[in-house]
Amino acid sequence: MFSRKSVVAFIASFSPINGEKWCHPALPPELEKTTSQTEGHFFKTTLEAEVLKSQPLESPFDVLEAQNHDVSPLKSSSTCFALIIDVSDGLHLFLTSNEKEWNRFAQVDINSQGETFRLLPDFINLSTKMVGIVGLGSAGSKVAISLARTGVRNFFLVDHDVFLQENICRHELNWEDVGQHKIDGIAHQLKLIAPDINVRCSPFKLSGQEPTATVDSVLSQLGTCDLIIDATADPCTLNQLSTVASQQLKPMVWLKIYPGGIGGMIARFRPNEDPDPKTTRAALREHLEKLELPEIQEATDYTTINDEGEVIAASDADVTLIAANATRMALDILIKREPSDFPCSLYLIGLSQGWIFEQPFHTIPIDLSEVQSIITEPELPENEANEALGFIEQLISKQKNEDPSTG
Fold this sequence. Notes:
Radius of gyration: 29 Å
CATH superfamily of the largest domain: NAD(P)-binding Rossmann-like Domain
Oligomer: single chain
């Protein structure tokens, strides 16, 4: 890969011609989409890695000559690279364009377990969790990338929108992604983080004019996730996801960035522990009414007009702060931390003075302990319900046959 100041080479795989292929276990397969396959020479030496690195080599074939090997056939053949394998199976790469002047790559060891060692013990098992994220805009993109860097490996992404130039100011994507669906760009970025990341994408708007069967299919897939995250700030979508979470007994996190970057809101639903999202929204509205404050209305592009008539907008830093706290709440749910790091299920987080916030970083927890939790049993699909009913009827029929006196 060519960067601004250097050429970086990842040895993703190599093999003898018509031989068994070796693949690097730590490199994401997504990297190979931008690489090419080429022919060259590779050979193993009995030298230690440190000895090999310290030798002033003008050509990789100097190593073979030093060990009394005849390298004349190799020197005369056409090649663009040579790969030396030291006695400990370390890889040393050389590249040439004219077979006379060789460039030696500095070696940076890649530890396939290094990522695991740097994660907190609580996060190790996140690789088994599936997270569904609806809305891959500025906030949702940051939540997805952060979860992947923390250890989540399975994602189901839902968003219909296309990434445009004006999205660059707050989004995780950049000019390389302009013109494609946001979920495709984020899926690519996720797959570059770790080799074992799996991403399913659904380019649909749940509250849009989509076919009912399509919406039902997407909602059904979200119902199989270990956690649902709503980053759309759309009331209709929140209602849909609230129904899925309540019926399937799945936890949910949703967030909102207030216009102008004044602050934001994060909330959660844990089945049989927190009020469902619809009830939580109603409780927040009632809380604000008691304070004689209006609920902040949604605004496009996170913009609003201040008292002086100036247009102000949330910055990337504002969105990042709210998204980061929503991610922390999501992780708290995924690892089932007891007691939870979040005593309340709803928080208002201030980033500047105004509205309900007295100053920057003014955090207001909303106590919903007296709000009755909605206990909902999951609904069985019709085919499963019929199977269960048939099984019960068979048991009753069998009992009657064995004991005719049974009523």
